Amino acid sequence: MSTDVPAVPPRPNGDDCRLPDSVLQNVPSDRELSRLASRLGAEWEMVLLDLGVSAEALYRCRSDHSLNTQAAALASLVLWRRSEGRKATLGRLLRSLEAAGVHPSVLEDAVMC
């Protein structure tokens, strides 16, 4: 029996996500980030912290959009995408969503709608 490591690494999201690997390699669009922000609840800050956005930057986004949590989440997501460039992929976003306990369908809905 061979115990070789598979040539293709396992998907970061297990089998729960229906998004193809080719889509997960894409950088999210403004529209996709907006849809995602509208679907996130209180866990949005945990997601952004996992993505590497600083607590200070989150505080600024919260302060700038104190009456609108969705706008604060969107501003933070855009900040993350801007700071990470091509490394800001849907796959990376999916891993942070899952780390925060968010079901993959939340990202699927934001991307596939």
In words, what does this structure look like?
The chain is mostly helical and about 110 residues long. About 60% of the residues lie in helices and about 0% in strands. It is built from 7 helices and no strands. The chain has helices at about 20-25, 30-40, 45-50, 55-65, 70-85, 90-100, 105-110. Helix 2 packs across helix 7. The longest helix is centred in the C-terminal third of the chain and has 16 residues, at about 70-85. It is globular. The N and C termini lie far apart (about 45 Å). About 30% of the residues are buried. The model is unreliable at about 1-15 (pLDDT under 50). One of its GO terms (biological process) is signal transduction. This is Death domain-containing protein. It comes from Crenichthys baileyi (White River springfish). It holds the Pfam family Death.
Features:
113 residues, Death domain-containing protein, mainly alpha, 7 helices, disordered N terminus, DEATH-like_dom_sf, Death_dom, Death Domain, Fas, 0% strand
Averaged pLDDT, please?
87
Largest sheet: none
Number of helices: 7
Instruction: Tally the beta strands.
Output: 0
Q: Classify the secondary structure makeup into a structural class.
A: mainly alpha
Uncertain residue segments: 1-14
Topology:
Layout lengths: L20 H4 L5 H10 L4 H8 L3 H10 L4 H16 L5 H10 L4 H9 L1
Task: Characterize this entry briefly.
Helices cover 59% and strands 0% of the residues. By secondary structure, the protein is an all-alpha fold.
